[in-house]
Specification:
This protein is α/β, with parallel strands linked by helices and 339 residues long. The protein contains nine helices and 19 strands. The strands form three sheets. It has a nine-stranded mixed β-sheet. An eight-stranded parallel β-sheet has the order 8-7-6-5-4-3-2-9. Helix 5 links the parallel strand 4 and strand 5. It binds pyridoxal-5'-phosphate (PLP). Pyridoxal-5'-phosphate binds next to helix 7 and strand 9.
Length: 339
């Protein structure tokens, strides 16, 4: 292995898609693969999701969609984010569908009118009478993962505005959190990202939905050393041994996406959970071992019970951000696709 190995299990993606599609039926499952499939690899994830029963692929930008069109010549691809006037021609040529969040609605490409019902970001304040290029009506929840009553208000607003068009256009609102926990919001299609990757949108336990994490991140101990009391490891001497201690150095750092605020989380060394101690540096971090260990001992950063959700709780962030932040750079990390 290089310094670390990220393994993406497409079998897990396929199964998660199957599980979600079955749970959402008769609503369609649309797979969200923006930001390179939340760091998992967009084309591979999209293919696996389609095999598992997803019926469309969603990305954030036209630039993300174009290479996907080459990989997936016949699938429905929807761009959820805003588009510049110049990108409309590109979108038409690549047979994309566009979410439109302002008054200038392109005529010659299929569009989804995006109503802002409370997200306060992209979206039309009022739904205009749909023109002939409109194929869908959509909104996006601000709080499906945190405040269900606000999400319900948003949903009511959306229903009121779109009721006259029910059955004529695909109506879609739910992200993963809504699709899982607010079944009434499923409408004609749900747009699931994080759940597809087997990560819980609310930072809890995705396995309770029957979802399995698709990403594993592994490395190995590059160095094992004994610290005498008073000796420290890493920048700033943030960890000072109070008793004789064994420290393992893992050759992964914040440049790889193992962020500086992950100090205090656990990783798994030779099947034992151990804490990350001291300052995480650009290329390495330290773990406190229960005793001497072999150099080269396997280290699991994500997997074997250590989840992105658990790391995110320590870092004060969400699994989404950690997944997108894992950086597979030449000479540093490798991504392998299995299943
Ligand atoms: C990213 C995104 C989603 C997917 O959200 P998850 O929480 O990952 O399921 C759905 N809809 C829109 C508009 C998005 O931008």
């Amino acid at each position: 292995m290089t310094r670390s190995l990220v393994t993406i299990d497409l079998g897990a993606i396929r199964e998660n898609a199957r599980t979600l599609a079955a749970m959402q039926r008769p609503s369609e499952l649309w797979a969200v693969v923006k930001a390179d499939g939340y760091g998992h690899g967009a084309a591979d994830v999209a293919r696996a999701a389609l095999e598992g029963g997803a019926t469309a692929i969603c990305v954030a930008t036209v630039g993300e969609a174009v290479p996907l069109r080459e990989a997936l010549p016949t699938s429905r691809i929807v761009v959820l984010g805003p588009t510049t006037a110049g990108e409309v021609a590109v979108a038409r040529r690549a047979r994309l569908e566009l979410a439109v969040a302002d008054e200038s609605v392109p005529e010659d490409v299929p569009v989804h009118l995006k109503l802002d019902t409370g997200m306060g970001r992209w979206g039309l304040a009022e739904l205009p009478a749909p023109g002939r290029s409109v194929v869908g009506l959509m909104t996006h929840f601000a709080t499906a993962d945190s405040d269900r009553s606000f999400a319900s208000e948003q949903f009511e607003r959306f229903l009121r505005a779109t009721e006259p068009y029910a059955g004529r256009y695909v109506r879609h609102a739910a992200n993963s959190a809504a699709a899982l926990t607010m079944p009434e919001t499923r409408l004609d299609a749900v747009r699931c990202g994080i759940a597809l990757y087997g990560v819980d949108p609310r930072g809890q336990d995705a396995t309770r939905w029957g979802l399995r994490p698709a990403l594993r991140w592994e490395s190995e101990l590059a160095q094992v050393r004994r610290l005498a009391p008073g000796q420290s490891t890493g920048y700033g001497r943030q960890f000072v041994a109070t008793a004789e201690s064994w420290i393992g150095i893992v050759p992964v750092g914040y440049a790889d996406g193992f962020r500086r605020d992950l100090t205090g989380t656990d990783v798994v060394v030779a099947d034992v959970r151990v804490p990350v101690v001291g300052t995480i540096s650009m290329d390495a971090f330290a773990v406190l071992l229960p005793g001497p260990a072999e150099r080269g001992a396997p280290v699991t950063l994500v997997g074997d019970g250590m989840t992105l959700e658990a790391h995110a709780a320590v870092a004060g962030t969400i699994g989404y951000e950690l997944a997108c932040g894992i950086r597979v750079a030449p000479g540093r990390a490798t991504r392998e696709v299995v299943g």
